[in-house]
Design a protein that fits this description.
The chain has helices spanning 2-28, 44-69, 71-77, 81-111, 113-117, 121-143, 147-150, 155-163, 177-191, 221-254, 260-267, 273-302; strands at residues 305-310, 320-323, 329-334, 340-344, 363-366, 371-374, 392-393, 395-398, 404-408, 414-415, 427-431. With 438 residues, it is an alpha+beta fold. The chain is 50% helix and 11% strand. It has a five-stranded antiparallel β-sheet, with no helix packed on it. It has two domains: 2-204, Transmembrane di-heme cytochromes, Chain C (Fumarate Reductase Cytochrome B subunit), CATH 1.20.950; 304-431, Rieske Iron-sulfur Protein (3-layer Sandwich). A hairpin with a 5-residue loop joins strand 9 (404-408) and strand 10 (414-415). The chain is built from twelve helices and eleven strands.
């Protein structure tokens, strides 16, 4: 319920208020959506705070937009280990740059009497919100490493599902709490835009490039000379900007054919009858696969036992994958006591499937973010991004007639003794109610 409110209801509320609230304020109170610059009141602190803040946040937002609008390009770019390391390092450095700039701006607003006089409650709310959001971004980058890699499979499809009005929070439900808080902070940021000075981001003074020049007349001779020189410089700058815009627009028109593939990437090609038929067949096969999976899930829920395999086939070094009652992957090994050892294969960090090969230290590896788990205790290594252990599963051993020979519950309590003559034909099952150890 809480997840639905935070990741489905809140995004649509924030987008609605952010868009229509901004339009309403601009139309009804057009003189209130400027930035109300405080540079005339204090400029030195503003320079040391505003410059690093704007540099850092501009590059970070640009990277976020690229990962969102072109996930395929982004994933191919960071598929190289060096590129991924550069992106992660640059992102962390820019995040600290933003945080430093925000702290300087916050201290400036709190210590300058002149700026305090023009500071509203909403200004303080925005500063606190920005500090929390940037701080959460830094914490996410530090504690949830390689976010630029796993965001393409989590936050990007989640945002697209929101925009296409097919909300699906399953992409982010397993994310760490820091990443979830960072997402909620972004929606709150959009929500407060119409009520704060943040709305000035929509006030781009494009008309300044085309308005008639202002002629200031001075009666003092020295001022006349200075004003004349300034007027000439301003007129030259205005002509340069007009020429630049004209050249840029002409180059855009000439390159439309070249960028046809780019437009096709975003809007998609027009499908013929054959392509539409193939697309419908693909969708039908996916629906049939989903139906088959649901039937299997129902069958498993109706069964008291699920076969894992023969005890003689289990290996202490090469685990056997199987699916438990929750339709989650798990691995079966032969333990030190020659009895089954069943452990969850879903990484407790972001839900990746861990490997089934045991190294010389008795550990299995999650290849997504490099976490090692001890198969006997389930505990991750100290440096791993995963902090919680992999849970073990209970099991029962039956003979060929369905008689229970040995059982072990989720807490590790074992009942019964397996005789040597029964080992060759013994089969391992998981039973309902013993899915995992808490």
């Amino acid at each position: 319920m809480i997840d639905s409110l935070l990741f489905i209801a809140l995004p649509y509320l924030a987008i609605f208020v952010g868009v229509f609230g901004s339009i309403y304020r601009i139309r009804t109170a057009p003189m209130t959506y400027s930035s109300l610059s405080s540079q005339f009141l204090e400029s030195k602190g503003l320079m040391w705070g505003s410059l690093p803040w704007h540099i850092g946040i501009t590059v970070i937002l640009l990277a976020h937009f690229i990962a969102f609008l072109a996930p395929g390009f982004w994933q191919s770019m960071i598929s190289h280990q060096l590129a991924l390391a550069v992106v992660e390092s640059a992102g962390l450095g820019l995040s600290f740059l933003c945080l430093i700039g925000l702290i300087v701006l916050a201290v400036r607003r709190m210590t300058s009497a002149r700026i305090q006089a023009v500071t509203s409650v909403m200004d303080l709310v925005v500063i606190v919100l920005l500090l929390l959001q940037v701080g959460l971004g830094v914490a996410t980058a530090v504690h949830c490493k390689w976010g630029s890699s796993w965001c393409s499979g989590t936050t990007t499809p989640y945002l697209w599902s929101i925009i296409t009005f097919q909300p699906d929070m399953s992409y982010i439900v397993d994310l760490p709490l820091l990443a979830k808080a960072h997402i909620v902070g972004a929606w709150l940021f959009i929500f407060v835009i119409p009520f704060s000075r943040l709305i000035h981001m929509f006030a781009v003074p494009v008309e300044y490039l085309f308005r008639p020049p202002q002629n200031v007349v001075w009666t003092n001779a020295n001022h006349c000379n200075v004003a004349s020189q300034s007027f000439v410089k301003e007129e030259a700058r205005r002509h340069f900007l007009r020429a630049f815009c004209g050249i840029a627009f002409g180059g855009f028109l000439l390159s439309i054919g070249t960028f046809r593939n780019v437009f096709s990437f975003f809007f998609g090609p027009r499908l013929g009858r054959k392509e539409e038929t193939e697309l419908m067949e693909l969708r039908l096969s996916r629906l049939e696969s989903t139906v088959g999976q649901r039937k299997l899930e129902l069958e498993r829920q109706a069964s008291n036992f699920i076969l894992v395999g023969k005890l003689a086939d289990l290996s202490p070094d090469d685990g056997k994958y199987f699916i438990d009652y929750k339709m989650q992957p798990a691995i079966a090994f032969r333990g030190r006591d020659d009895l089954p050892l069943l452990i969850s294969a879903k990484c407790t960090h972001l839900g990746c499937t861990v490997g089934n090969k045991v190294d010389d230290k008795g550990r299995i590896l999650c290849p997504c973010h490099v976490s090692f788990f001890d198969i006997n205790t389930g505990e991750p290594n100290a440096e791993a991004p995963a902090k919680a252990p992999l849970p073990h599963l209970g099991w029962v051993i039956m003979d060929e007639h369905g008689k229970v020979l040995v059982s072990r519950d989720a807490s590790g309590k074992t009942e019964g003794v397996l005789q040597p003559q029964s080992r060759a034909s013994a089969q391992v099952f998981i039973s309902k109610g013993q899915e995992a150890k808490a």
